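Late entry, iron/sulfur cluster complex.
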Amino acid sequence: MGADVAVGGASNSSVPIRRSPTYYEIPAPPELDWRPYRSPFYAEYRREWDRRGSEGDPGEAPLHLDLDLTSRCNLRCLMCPRTWFLERGETSWAPGGPGDMDPGLFRETASEGARLGARSVKMNFLGEPLLHPHVVELVAYAASLGLWVMMNTNAVLLSPALSRDLLEAGLTDVFFSFDSPYREEYERIRRGASYDRTLSNIRAFMEAKEALGLRYVQTRASMVLPEDPAGRGRAEVDYVRLFRDLGVAEVGFGLPTVMGRDYAPLNGGLDFVCPDLFRRVFVFHDGVAGPCCGDWERRLVVGDARKSSVSEIWKSPAYERLRSRHLAGAFAEVPACLCCSVPYLSTAGGDGGGSRGGAGRHAAGRRP
Ligand code: SF4
Ligand code: SF4
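Prediction complete; structure with ligand written out below:
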């Protein structure tokens, strides 16, 4: 965790800035803080999230599910790993081509996860969740299970009617991926998106949230900072101002990720245990399951939700072996982990916010 300072003078002094070498977040000012409106179980869930990561305790089941509603996307953002892979004809992240998760698979996985003790679900991983034709119905289903329902979105398809439907369905945490406070820069990076239309969608979402009185709904906007450090300070201030004016609670900034960089030489000899192995499971749209958002190449498959239960995946020999190697101080013996940015970035002075492509993709750090 970093120092409690603010960009643009807007900060909640009771909540420290989340900071890692590649990402940091300005917390909500008191008038936009959503935490006081959550049930006490939320604080307990966050404590358990931290405890599992720091103690290397997987418990009996995942605390959080990442269920990829779709691996399709309506944009081709410059800094996104998805774009990077597509442009190289690399398809290991979606072997049969990008597609949507079967609603039945989503329901079964979410319902078993909730029954076992999961507290939250994120509705995306490799694509834009609003493209899924049943997104509202699936949000409602997950909310009916008592899960906190989270989503990253580029907000391009977030019409006023859809905003209202999602909020009424029970969406609790929305993370807008919106790069740059400046029209020209935004449209250069977010290829295929209109600055004015997307901003108007976010405004309508915030108005719907206000009209419905949903103070517990968390909102965050995040951007990848310009590659030239000289332009960052002004962009940060303008970005915070833009989203605070819209009533968005939190604002996050990621450094540009260098796709294709080999972290193996930097990771050698580090003392590192990946915290995600003890709290979450990622299910690709086709049911294949992995331990983290960094493994686009599917080298760390730990199961398949079409063939195995959540419990079986969580306790699978593949997942147990991966945890054991990390706990034994041998993460570097796992080729995918040896090449990953997370060990280096999270032991080089940060708190683990540098997922491989995390800053580039959605600038959302590694918190769900
Ligand atoms: S950053 Fe998000 S919106 Fe942009 S191409 Fe990647 S997945 Fe799609
Ligand atoms: S690839 Fe990276 S994020 Fe994934 S388990 Fe290994 S170290 Fe953790």
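Residues 1-13, 349-365 have pLDDT under 50 and may be disordered. Will revisit in the morning.
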